[in-house]
Amino acid sequence: MVPVYHFLWLGAFLFCAGLMVIITKRNAIMVLLGIELMLNASNLNLVAFNQLHPAHLSGQMFALFVIIVAVCEAAVGLAIVLRVYQHYQTSVPDEVTDLKD
Amino acid sequence: MNFVTILFYFFEAVAALAALSLVLVRNVFYGALILVVCLLSLAAIYVLAFAEFVAVTQILIYAGGILVVIIFGVMLTAKIAGKPLVVKHTNVWGGTLACVALFTLLLYFLSSQKFFEDGKDKMQAADTAINTIGFGLMTEFVLPFEVAGILLLAALIGAAVIASSIKSRNV
Hints:
Chain A is mainly alpha-helical.
């Protein structure tokens, strides 16, 4: 059968990979992809810890709500990226510096 | 080691490799496709972990919804049509240091803690999982369910308003 601890290790790896994507990529859409990866890592942990009470399924329920919030975040985030692109003609977050000193 | 375990290791390796190549890839469109691979293999892992409802939701929403939106975003923000959107890397050493440190820390804590008792460290099936989720969404979790509906509606209207190019006269 499937060992539970592998879920936690894979979740940790996916979270760190998502963080790496967010830090290193110079593109707003790539940053959004990294955020999706981190949310999926947390989902993996929720499904794994569902095993503490397998009959109650509250972990899986929480994972469903995390997916819903991820949808909202992706939709609003991409809309903001499009708007910023229309206004500044760039999708690089570092180049939007109007509020900088 | 039976067939299910081998399948689980295979999908685990696919997910990890896809995440690793998402770090390395420079083309945003390829990045989106690699993320599809990672999310689909995670859905397969959910099926093997007896979380069928989460797996189906994952495929429908992520592979069907979010990735289409992301690919539209890639198309709409490419400066010159026909030329791939290639990103540069920045903060490579700092990012690597932070991620390796975080990963080591997480592995240290995961190996020092014992979350599951000895008999329970394999995935167990809940017999009527989808049934329980259906009843739970309408009884115990009905308030978060409805709030999630309102949140989705607000987020989608907000996204449509933000992304529409009609100029508002008041702003």
